[in-house]
Write a structure and sequence with these properties.
Helix content: under 10%
Strand content: 35-45%
Shape: globular
């Protein structure tokens, strides 16, 4: 006696989970020597009362102060201020016009003794020029903010270089809106 057993399988795609990558709101980390564009936007009832925005340079996103390296605050949120555990300095490049071209060797002797880079003047080093009449903010060409998790670039295990691209403000009687555009390069 011969028995024949036959089975058939039907693949039901309706029950197969979607195989696409889902980050579930996780942020991408900037890799060493990688550069990414960043942006913060804020609204205020007054042109002189901006709420600070904490920012993670590593994750290229807003973040709680406990995981952020810097905050954007004050004048249309154009000031970059170091947070606890980080040091801030600046680098004026004689020839590099884009943060992607900055290297660790370029910034190796940068002094990291600032708390904030804001409006540039004859007495204060800043990373933007502010026209008080027109309220226009213009980045200082070839000036880069340097942020590290140590007071020494050599001893730091995390080093970021930030190029301010633009600070754009809208509104004449309030509410006022500001958008800060920048690029961050991670060197360590």
């Amino acid at each position: 006696m011969i028995a024949v057993l036959g089975t058939a399988c039907k693949k039901d795609n309706a029950e197969t989970p979607d195989q696409k990558l889902a980050l579930n709101e996780a942020k991408a980390v900037i890799p060493v020597n990688g550069t990414q564009a960043g942006q913060v936007t804020n609204t205020s009832a007054s042109p002189t009362a901006w709420t600070a925005i904490n920012y993670s340079l590593l994750n290229n996103a807003t973040a709680p102060a406990t995981t952020a390296q810097v905050k954007f605050e004050s004048n249309f949120n154009g000031n970059i201020t170091k947070l606890t555990g980080y040091s801030l300095g600046y680098y004026d490049s004689p020839s590099v016009t884009n943060v992607t071209g900055i290297t660790l060797a370029d910034i190796s002797s940068v002094s990291l003794g600032l708390s904030t880079l804001g409006s540039n003047s004859t007495t204060t080093v800043g990373w933007y020029n502010y026209n008080r009449t027109t309220r226009v903010i213009t980045p200082v060409a070839q000036r880069y903010a340097v942020v590290a998790n140590n007071a020494s670039i050599a001893a730091a295990t995390a080093v970021y270089v930030v190029q301010l691209d633009a600070v754009t403000a809208t509104g004449t009687t309030g509410p006022f809106t500001t958008t800060v555009d920048f690029h961050t390069k991670r060197l360590k």
